[in-house]
Write a sequence for this structure.
């Protein structure tokens, strides 16, 4: 088995904080930052309250970044960096988990009259404290996040408040904290300025920090596409299995009327019964094949991989039984409730390599998107939870599963690693390493509303940051990056990325079926 070298991205992240505040790492994942600048600050400086939106100091539930994640080093580093670098403002902090708690804090701040603005940092995806802040104050609000922490809530709330036109709200996504520190420098406008001055400065800083045009060079990638008419012809009559959650009758009708696709609901009991029929030796043989092909295996037992193989054969059996092309499973609930014997990540990888579709989280919009454009392009899509990074014009497409055949079934297999599922650090999942330089097209259908999002870009790398989902494909996006913030509340978080540059062809398909096209950049 080949060895892969891993870097400690979290330690590097903390190093960035400490470098900015003139301090050093004294032990792995622990920092000691000087508070000299904080203690020497004039008490009459304008005060900004930093709101850390999180459920626990040490995360005790499966969520981004991951169970067991200690937020305290990051929070300390943020405060030390802010107070050591922005000398004409004093930063105070609160950890907030609930809306009522946030309301009480703002009421108290208003009574004292000492807090002039808020910096809200989204630390994980389980809460949306920002809603309470926006609803409760007209003071300046700058909204940012811990990378690979609060991204799911963050992107949707940013889109919501852009759409609402809130005049006291600005935002900045960045992997490297030095850019957040520059963004927070807008609070210096509180010295003699007003809310409008702070928000304009923050907006201007984000624009200045975001490269104006895509700099990545695309590799040649020849791709033969079906016409919209031929795509619809081939899709018609295909079946999708939806495991556990019932699908609304209206949704199923729209899928049938528009695409000719039938959705068949399957219970967890049925998939478990199928799993129980699988020959254990057959599962062990497939598990050995996966292990031999992996560049590395980290914290995953042999028995866990065997259970993943059993689930793969069960899913393939159900697809055959129902004559279906795709299966989507409410996998998180299934595993957390122990209704599933394993995560389906490795099994989905195998199905997709074979030309069948396995899609996470019983996400039917993503499943239909994957199905349509797999048929059109001949390539398998990659479902992800995107993370934004404005200073590099990038999106990091993250998930715990990927096909190894990103360039098509007849293309090369990409390297992969077998790791635990990230949020709960259990089970088995996949980190695929995508080839660099290829153009990509990212899509999402919203069947209920009859709309489709599109953006394109170029793969520039892969991240091995330990936080959040395992596969992290980095792409620099084409077009106007400022538009990328606008649609997340319309299509929710998931997007489906295909290797190949066919955004205009996808738009032609959407127009053929009467869907409105939303170009995201």
């Amino acid at each position: 088995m080949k060895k892969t070298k891993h870097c400690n991205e979290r330690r590097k992240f903390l190093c960035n904080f400490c470098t900015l505040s003139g301090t050093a790492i004294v032990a792995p994942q622990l920092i000691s930052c000087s508070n000299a600048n904080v203690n020497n600050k004039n008490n009459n400086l304008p005060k900004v309250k930093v709101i850390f939106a999180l459920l626990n100091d040490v995360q005790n539930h499966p969520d981004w970044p991951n169970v067991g994640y200690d937020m305290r080093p990051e929070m300390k580093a943020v405060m030390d960096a802010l107070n050591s670098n922005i000398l004409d403002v004093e930063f105070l902090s609160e950890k907030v988990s609930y809306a009522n708690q946030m309301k009480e804090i703002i009421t108290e701040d208003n009574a004292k009259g000492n807090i002039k603005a808020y910096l809200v940092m989204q630390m994980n995806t389980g809460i949306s404290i920002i809603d309470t802040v926006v609803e409760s104050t007209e003071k300046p609000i700058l909204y940012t996040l811990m990378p690979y922490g609060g991204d799911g809530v963050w992107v949707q709330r940013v889109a919501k408040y852009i759409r609402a036109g809130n005049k006291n709200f600005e935002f900045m996504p960045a992997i490297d904290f030095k850019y957040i520190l520059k963004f927070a420098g807008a609070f210096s406008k509180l010295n003699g300025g007003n809310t409008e001055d702070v928000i304009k400065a923050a907006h201007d800083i984000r624009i200045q920090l975001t490269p104006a045009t895509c700099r990545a060079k695309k590799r040649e990638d020849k791709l033969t596409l079906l016409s919209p008419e031929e795509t619809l012809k081939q899709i018609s009559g295909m079946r999708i299995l939806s495991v556990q959650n019932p699908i609304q009758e209206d949704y199923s009708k729209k899928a049938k009327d528009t695409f000719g696709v039938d959705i068949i609901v399957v219970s967890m009991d049925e998939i478990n019964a199928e799993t129980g029929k699988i020959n254990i030796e057959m599962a062990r043989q497939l598990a050995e094949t996966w292990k031999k092909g992996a560049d590395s295996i980290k914290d995953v037992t042999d028995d866990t991989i065997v259970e993943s193989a059993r689930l793969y054969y069960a899913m393939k059996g159900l697809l055959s039984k129902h004559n279906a092309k795709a299966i989507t499973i409410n996998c998180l609930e299934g595993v957390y409730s122990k209704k599933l014997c394993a995560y389906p990540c490795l099994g989905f990888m195998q199905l997709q390599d074979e030309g069948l579709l396995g899609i996470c989280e019983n996400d039917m919009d993503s499943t239909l998107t994957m199905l349509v454009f797999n048929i059109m392009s001949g390539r398998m899509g990659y479902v992800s939870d995107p993370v934004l990074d404005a200073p590099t014009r990038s999106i990091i497409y993250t998930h715990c599963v990927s096909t190894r055949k990103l360039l098509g079934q007849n293309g090369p297999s990409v390297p992969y690693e077998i790791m635990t599922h990230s949020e709960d650090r259990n089970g088995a999942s996949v980190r695929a390493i995508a080839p660099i330089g290829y153009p990509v097209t990212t899509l999402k259908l919203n069947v209920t509303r009859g709309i489709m999002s599109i953006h394109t870009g170029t793969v520039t790398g892969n991240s091995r940051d330990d936080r959040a989902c395992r596969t992290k494909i980095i792409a620099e996006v084409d077009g106007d990056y400022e538009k990328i913030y606008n649609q997340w509340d319309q299509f929710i978080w998931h997007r489906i990325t295909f290797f190949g540059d066919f955004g205009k062809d996808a738009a032609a398909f959407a127009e053929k079926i009467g869907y409105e096209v939303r170009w995201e950049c």
Notes: The mean pLDDT is 91.
